[in-house]
Write a structure and sequence with these properties.
The protein is mainly alpha-helical. It contains nine helices and four strands.
Length: 221
C-alpha cells in the first residue's frame, strides 16, 4: 500500500498519481514475473498480487520476497509501502478468502505491528478475530478485565508488557528483548499488573484474557 506521491511540477495531481500507479505496477510485476502470477491495481494506492507459490516454498520465503519488493519501491520510487499476505489457496473461493485475509493483515499490521512492513495473516489471526467481535463486547471485556489497569498513568507500558509477554511465549527473556528493556523492568511491570488485578500473569487463562483486553483497547483507539 504505497503512500501517495507529492505532485510533480508542471502536471496535474491526477496525472501524476496515474503515472505513479503505472510505475508501481511495473515494479511489482517485474518482481512477481511468473507466467501464472497476476498483478493488478485493486484500488487507489493498492496493488493486488495473486502469486503462484511453488511446491516446497514457505510463507517465510514469501515474506522475504515482499520485503525486497517494499525496499525496491522505496529505492526506485521514494515511496513507503506495506504488504499483507493471505493464506495459500487452491480454489476460486479460497483465493477470495485469501485476498480478504491479506487486506485484513495489511490493515491490522499497520495498527499493531507498525515497525514492520510485511504482515502475514498467520501472525494476526487473533487480532482478526477480536476485530470481528462487536464493539460492545470488546468494551465489556475491557471493563471486566482491565479497568483498574487502564486507570494507571503507565497503562500503555503495562499493556505493551502484557502483549509482549503473551506473544513471546510467556518467556521473560524474549519479552524483555521484544520490549527493548531490562528483564528487571519486565518483572517490575508484571508484579504491578498482578498486584492490581489480583491474578498471576503466569496463569495462562489470566494472561490470555488480559491479552485480548489489550488488543481490544488498541482497537478502541
Amino acid at each position: 500500500m504505497p503512500h501517495p506521491a507529492p505532485r510533480r511540477q508542471g502536471g496535474t495531481q491526477s496525472r501524476d498519481m496515474a503515472l505513479v500507479r503505472s510505475e508501481l505496477l511495473r515494479t511489482v510485476g517485474e518482481f512477481f514475473a511468473d507466467p501464472q502470477d497476476i498483478v493488478a491495481s485493486t484500488a487507489p494506492a493498492w496493488i493486488g498480487v495473486l502469486h503462484r507459490l511453488p511446491a516446497g516454498r514457505s510463507t517465510a520465503s514469501l515474506v522475504a520476497d515482499c520485503r525486497r519488493v517494499t525496499d525496491l519501491i522505496a529505492a526506485q520510487d521514494g515511496l513507503a509501502a506495506r504488504a499483507g499476505i493471505g493464506e495459500a489457496a487452491d480454489s476460486v473461493g479460497g483465493l477470495h478468502d485469501s485476498y480478504q485475509d491479506a487486506c485484513d493483515a495489511l490493515r491490522l499490521g499497520a495498527r499493531f505491528a507498525d515497525t514492520d512492513r510485511v504482515h502475514p495473516i498467520t501472525d494476526l489471526r487473533v487480532h482478526q478475530v477480536v476485530t470481528a467481535v462487536s464493539q460492545s463486547a470488546r468494551h465489556r471485556l475491557l471493563e471486566l478485565t482491565a479497568t483498574e489497569l487502564r486507570a494507571q498513568p503507565d497503562w500503555p507500558a503495562l499493556r505493551d508488557t502484557v502483549t509482549a509477554w503473551c506473544e513471546s511465549g510467556f518467556n521473560l527473556v524474549r519479552t524483555a528483548e521484544a520490549l527493548h528493556i531490562h528483564r528487571n523492568t519486565v518483572v517490575y511491570r508484571m508484579n504491578k499488573i498482578e498486584q492490581i488485578t489480583g491474578r498471576p500473569l503466569r496463569e495462562y487463562r489470566t494472561a490470555m484474557a488480559l491479552y485480548l483486553a489489550c488488543l481490544a483497547d488498541r482497537l478502541g483507539h
